[in-house]
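Risk register update: the risk of archive-format incompatibility is retired. Evidence:
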Amino acid sequence: EASGGGLLRDASGRGHDMALQPGVTVVPGKFGQACRFDGEKAHLTYRAEDLGGARGVVSLWVSFERLTGEQVLCSVRGAGDGLKVMMKERDGRPEMQFQLYDAAAGTSYSVKADVGGWKPGEWHHLGAYWNAEFQVMRVCLDGQLAASGSLGFKPDFGSAGVWIGADSDLRDGLIGAIDEMVIKSPGSSEE
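Archived output:
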């Protein structure tokens, strides 16, 4: 949530407050205020000291200004393993993609869900879930299971950088807004 002086306060109480960066503005959101990203390297970032990784969730509300190209909603990169949630245009249709990267094996696991019925300016809820014990990863859209796939490793993000609105290399930025975002790995000290 936004506060005075261009500071975004972490509502979880975990201390992940972030300064507004160039290209990120506070706009009306699904619930109160949201962050709008202009797609030109606009991003927010913080360091999660112990994100864990055996199981977890990324939950957020998103409103795209356009549903073309590739737009990263969030990216997590630790010393090894990584996570990415993005919208990617494929064969002229937009789809949501959730990827987990296994650094030791040099491979990615992903699930994809069609969002061809979405329109620019609409708010939609996205939930990306993973559980290494049950070897599953899922994407839920607007409260409905949209895609499910196998997960063949136990992610370990450790002390990780979290990028919101862009990839860790600041490419493929979001052109739209994010509201009520949560990244949580139960059992870790971070949320």
